[in-house]
Structure formats: structure tokens, C-alpha cells
Amino acid sequence: MSYEVVGIAVLWTFLYGYLIVASVDFGAGFFSYYTKRTNKNHITHNIIQRYLSPVWEVTNVFLVFFFIGIVGFFPSTAYYYGTALLVPGSVAIILLALRGSYYAFATYGAKDSPLYTFLYGATGLLIPASLSTVLTISEGGFVIKENGNVRLLYGELFGSLYSWGVVLLAIVSVLFISASFLTYYASRAKDEGALKLLRKYALIWSFPSILMGIIVFFLLSKRNLEHYQNMVDLWWMFAVSLAAFAIATYLIWKKRNYGLAFIMVMVQYFAAFFGYGAAHLPYLLYPYLTIYDGFTNETMAIALIIAFIAGLLLLIPSLYLLMRLFLFDADYVEGKKEAM
Amino acid sequence: MFEYDPVLYSRLLTTLTLAFHVIFATLGVGIPLMIAIAEWMGIRRNDPHYTLMARRWARGFVVTVAVGVVTGTAIGLQLSLLWPNFMQAAGHTIGLPMFMETFAFFFEAIFLGIYLYTWDRFKSKVKHFLLVIPIVIGATASAFFITTVNSFMNAPQGFNIIDGVLTDVSPLAAMFNPATPSKMSHVILSSYLTSAFILGAIAAFHILKGSKHVYHKKALHLTMVSAAVFAIGTALVGDLSGKYLHEYQPEKLAAAEWHFETEEKASLVLGGILTDGNEVRFALEIPYALSILAGGSADTIVTGLNDFPEDEVPPLWIHYMFDLMVFIGIYLAALSALFVVLHWRKKWNAFNRPVLWAVVAGGPAAMFAIEAGWIFAEVGRQPWILNGVMTVAEGATTSAHVDMMLYLFLVLYAILGVTCVVVLRRMFKQNPVEAELEKRNISHQAV
Ligand code: HDD
Ligand code: HEM
Ligand code: HEM
Question: Which InterPro entries does the record match to this protein (chain B) (predicted)?
């Protein structure tokens, strides 16, 4: 494999990691807001708090890793995306900032306030919507370069069916991923009430998520035919994704093996995300930028890869410890251990 | 009216974000160390007061860290949004430490999550203490890595530009540039110092408000002893920073000192004002001191501003920033040393009101010194974004709407700042030390 491909594979893997952990977080925010509005809050509150409190910061770092990493491996992305995305990027930052800090304020500091919960719930859906536009833009046609200036075409972006399709796909996926994880977590916590409610949410959002996936797939053919055809060539990855989805939904429906069901959801998104990404190559921004002409110099590439491997050696044991203490520790999950 | 200028607005927005982030970043670097020291004292002396201190500091710390994380995320993204040309060049040469910084964040975030929720989980207290060490390492490492990036902006090396093409890139040479040693030690030590002083100021404030509990006295003593060590360290390393400037960025040093004529036995100018004819008035001049700061002896020749091209001279008002930082540095060092001496001689009373008030003032003052130091360092690099290689105007975005973003972020930071203060106050007001000691059955007389 060339350095270029190693680089993009590393980054894409971290983006996938962010997709999963952030979806759980975003969806949890929405559910916690929604259940509060419908007075079912007492059912889900503990589950959501107990899982999120120790990990929210880790979630954020996945994103930071991605956007710092991409400038390291592909410095030209800073130029193209940086110039084009000033406004949507700033909006995403503001939403992320409000969400992160108000989560901490509500959890560690003050008593619960309706405003905090609202912010937390609303940003949970708005952030995936705004972040997903980056993928939309990468398909080409939304950004132009003229007289050496890069510009985002807002009319094109907001008027495009494809772009709205991606936004919807992002939102329903967030809800589905989140609900299936929280179902599993509630079952570990032996919390029957929460389990029942969350399982229902998981089932509600399962079909919309796959439906939107299929719709966006076909909308893409109108947007970027080359990418679409590459995806058709990689049809088997999407078949794996569909099969994993079927297994996951079946298990949740049958009230069995929630853990395996969540792993299947992860497989579903893994296959689809990597299928999408692999078919997108070599373009980072169609048609202006490929992974080859935007790549950093070779010395830097090697240094970054070495740093990455060293970093992983440090991270994997630490993440394992975190999961052991908070995800797989039955007493903690069941709420028998004291917090701060 | 004004014409829209993306460069100007990008500068303002960067300044705004960094000035806000650096408050929380500084605490984020320093407070973990103070928590570690307190928890360690609790174990060594078997004194639950110190353990509780660590626990309460950690609880407040989560709130400030949250703001640090979100504003850091903002500056990290904004660097690409506002300075795309700069980041494109920087990615090629200085991407490595930025990338490594994210691992430091990861490491810190993971252990912070664990640390906060495992106070009562282990039988052995040492085990829980061990969990704070990765946090201290992660926090200090992130300061180290990001400071190497800033050092690179001041003393770029580790690449060649031939006909506009970048060649011979050496990421390690870029990272360990001449500015790195003095800068990173100065930044890290000043973060420790500031954090110690802010925690000390809180303790002093409680004593002034009439809290009689020995807990606050212990907290004040612990923070002041630490602060004395860090303050002396900061000042010594600050001297090294001056020597670095003399060698690599003489125009910054000359501007900071309103030093116009190249000469030896140069004197250090404190305060004062500058007349139209570049004459220094009402200033305190310390003979030879500038030569000593620059080169360690009175014979050192210090280049004056008249010998630099006019368009490469940074704004001269940074003089006040430099003075403010040094003045506060001396104040903090003297004050913490005074406290330590008063406390050490048992018959003197270190907890008298003037000293306590002076400590209370020291907390915010330390933060002002941090801000002043950064403004001095960054504005003093003008007009360059990469010293001698790329100017600020070349690095900036060409986008429209940067002005709108500036206003949006101004509102965002105002909201975050206010809420953060409100939440912290409420958090500790609702659960004062006395009540918590009572609740945890830690007697007033303990040790
Ligand atoms: C509590 C904070 C604090 C205190 C008390 C001091 N400093 Fe400082 N100083 C900083 C906080 C700081 C900083 C925020 O960390 C800076 C800004 C950029 C940097 O590298 O460090 C800095 C920069 C900085 C620079 C510029 C370095 C450069 O641009 O490369 C010099 C020459 C000094 N300092 C010198 C001193 C001296 C002689 C002090 C005497 C007591 C002093 N500082 C106290
Ligand atoms: C241009 C300069 C800077 C950039 C781009 C930057 C970037 C960041 C980012 C992306 C984060 C969020 C990390 C996360 O998600 O956990 C962050 C937080 C933080 N930054 Fe900054 N930073 C800068 C300046 C500084 C400085 C000067 C210091 C130290 C003095 C510092 C220390 C920290 C600390 C301690 C945190 C909290 C980290 C944590 O607890 O995870 N940063 N910064
Ligand atoms: C980390 C702590 C830092 C602080 C507190 C800081 C502070 C500042 C300040 C106050 C300015 C405004 C200067 C002016 O208006 O003339 C500035 C400018 C800037 N800084 Fe730094 N700086 C830091 C480090 C960095 C780092 C590590 C980077 C890049 C990776 C960076 C990138 C910039 C850029 C692009 C500008 C705009 C150019 C300029 O006006 O000089 N800064 N910074």
C-alpha cells in the first residue's frame, strides 16, 4: 500500500470511530430531551448519564484527531476545505462548543435545567446534520475555484436533493446507532423499564436508517456518476452492510443478544462507510483534489505513521482500561458504585 | 466606512479565540499537577484534608477543562478555516507535533474520565493516585507539543524553499527549533505558576471571608510553596527567552525595550511613554540590564530598531505587554516567597490580611501575565506569521463573512465564560468544604 492510502485509511478509521461514539452521544442527547418532554425521563436518565459521563471528552478527541490528522497527511485539504467551509465549519464549531460545555455544566455543576437539556438535545441532531455536509461537498459541484479563489455555492448546496438526503441519513443513523447501543447498555444494567423503551426506539429507527441509505445511494448517481459506479463495483460491501442490518434488527426484535446486535450495527456502518470511502478514492474533493496531489512529503508521511503507531500502543491499553471500568464492569453499569 | 478585509477579521477572530482558550488551557496544564500534589500529600501524611482538596479541585477542574476542550476544538478548526494558506504550508513541516498533540489529548481524556469516577473504587489509595499521573503527563505533553508549533512560527527551520517548492523537510528539526527549549519551559512553568496562584487565591479568599477551618490554611500553604518554586523557575526561564530573542528575533526584543540605537551596555526601559520623535519619557532605566538580559554580560551589543527595515518592525506598544508580564512575574515570586518565609517562622503570622489580599490579587494577575506574554510574543512577530517566510496577510483566508463569524464567536465566548463562572460558583456554594468534611466524617481536628 502506498503512503497515501495508509494515510487516508488511518483517518477514515478514526472518522468511523467518531461516527460510532459520537452517534451514541448525539442520539443519547436527543432521547434524553425527548423522554423529558414526554415525562419518561426517569426511565432513561440514569442509563444515559452513567454511560456518557466518563467518556464524552474521549468522543470529542476522535474528531480533533481527524481534522488535525487530515491537515498533517493532506495539507492541501486545509486550503480547499478551509477556504470553502468557513461558515458551515464555524457553525459546527459553535454547536459543538455549546453541546460539550453545557453537557459538563449540567452534569458536574448545576442542577438540571430545561435549557441545558434542550441545547443538548437539539445540538445532538444539528451537529451530525452540519458535519455531514462535508461529505456532500466532497462529491463535487458545490465548490468552485475561480481566479485562484475557492468558493462554496450555497444555493447549490441548499437546493440539492442529494444534500438533504445526506442530512436525513445522518440524523436517522444517529438515532438508530444510539438506540441500539443504549438498548444493549440497558440490558447490561438490568434496567427493564429503560430497556423496553430504548428497544422500541431502536426498532422505530431501524428501517428509516436503511431506507435513507438506499435513497442516498441512488441520489448519488445523479450527483457523481463516477463515484456511484465505483460503489456499484463494490456492491458486496453494501451487501454485507445490509445483511448485518438484517441480523441486528432481527436480534433486537427477538429480544436476544443485544450485544451481538450492536456489533452487527457497527458492522453495518463499517461496511457501508468503507465502501463509500473506497469508492470515493482517489478524490478528496471531486474533481480538484486527489489523495496523490494533496499529499504531504514523504518524510512527514513516515514520521506521522510512526507517531501513529506509537500513539496506538499508548491508546489501546488505555481505552481497554476505560471500557473495562465503565462498560464491562457490571457493578458500575448497574449503578452500584458511587461517582465523583 | 471600513472596507471588509478578511485578513484583519481573521486576526481579530484568532486573537479572540486564543485569548479565551489560553485561560482554560493554562488551567488545564497546571491544575492536574496541583491535584496530583494534593492527593500525594494526603497519602503521605495520611491527612484526609489533602485528599478532599484533590477531590474538590478535580471537580471544579472538569468544568474548566470542558471549556478548554471546546475552545481548543474551535481554534484547531479555525486555524484551517482562517489561515488555509498558512496551514497548507505548516502541514508539510510542522504537522507532526500537532498530530502528536491529539494523542496527548486522547491519553489525558481517557484517564480523566477514569480518575473522576473511581475515587472510592480501589482499596489502595495509591492506585487511585496513579491514575492522575497520566493526566499530568497528558496535559503537560499537549502544552509541549502545541508550544513547539508556536516556536516553529517564531523560528522556522527544517525545510528548504527552492523556487517556491518545499524540499528537504525534516519534521524533527522543525519541531526542535531554537525557540523550543526556552518557550516550552516558560509556557509550562508559567501554567503551573498561574494554576497554583489561582487555587491559592481561592483559599485566601475563603480565609478572608471568615472561614476558620484549617483546610483552607493547608490549601494556601500548599499552593504558595508550589508557586514559589514555579515563580522562580518562570523568571529564570524568562531570562533564557530573552537570550533566545536576542539571537533569533532581535527586532522583537528591541521593540519590547524601545531600544533604538545599536549599542553595548544597553539599559532596560521600564514603563514610560514614547514621544513622536521616538524619545522615551518618564521611564525607569536600569543601566546595563538589557545587555545582561540579552547576552549575560554588560558588553553584549544589542541591535536597535533603527537597524531594521521599517516594515519589519513590530508594533512598539508590546513594550507594555512585556513590562506587565515581568512586573507580575516579580510580584508573584516575591509574594509567594514572602508567604513561605512567614509561614516557616512559626512566630510570624502568614495569614494576616494584607498578605491574604495580595494573594487574592495574585490569581487574576497571573492570568493577566499569561495573556500579556502571549500578546507580546505574537504581536512581536508581526508582520510575519512564519517568521521571515510568510506574512500574516499571505497566510489568511480570502473568504467573505469572516466579520460575521467574529461576532458570532464573541457571543459564544461571552455565554460560555459567564455560564462557566456561574456554574463553578454554584457548585462550590452548594457544597462548601465544611459541609463536605462533615458529610465525609473528617473531624475538624484531623492531623
Ligand atoms: C504567569 C505567566 C508569566 C510570567 C510571570 C512571566 N512570563 Fe514570560 N511569557 C509567558 C508567561 C509569563 C507566556 C504566556 O508563557 C509566554 C507567551 C509566549 C510564550 O512563549 O510564553 C511568555 C513569553 C515571554 C518571552 C517571549 C518569548 C518569545 O517570544 O519567544 C520573554 C522574553 C519572556 N516571556 C520573558 C519573561 C521574563 C524575563 C519574566 C520575568 C519574570 C517573565 N517572562 C514572566
Ligand atoms: C494555536 C494553539 C492551540 C491549538 C490549535 C489548540 C488545540 C486544542 C484542541 C483541539 C483542544 C481540545 C482537545 C480535546 O478535544 O480534548 C485543546 C484543549 C486544550 N489545550 Fe489547546 N490549543 C492551543 C493552545 C494551547 C496552549 C498554549 C496550551 C497550554 C498552555 C494548550 C493546552 C490545552 C489543554 C490543557 C487542553 C485541554 C485538553 C484536555 O483536557 O483534553 N492549548 N487545545
Ligand atoms: C497557543 C497559544 C497561543 C496564543 C495564546 C497565541 C496568541 C496569539 C495572539 C494574541 C495573536 C494575535 C496577534 C495580532 O493580532 O497581531 C495570534 C496570532 C496568530 N497566532 Fe498565535 N498564539 C498561540 C500559539 C499559536 C499557534 C501554536 C499557532 C499555529 C499553529 C498560532 C497561530 C496564530 C495565527 C495564524 C495568528 C494570526 C497571525 C497574527 O496576527 O500574528 N498561534 N496568536
Answer: Cyt-d_ubiquinol_oxidase_su_1
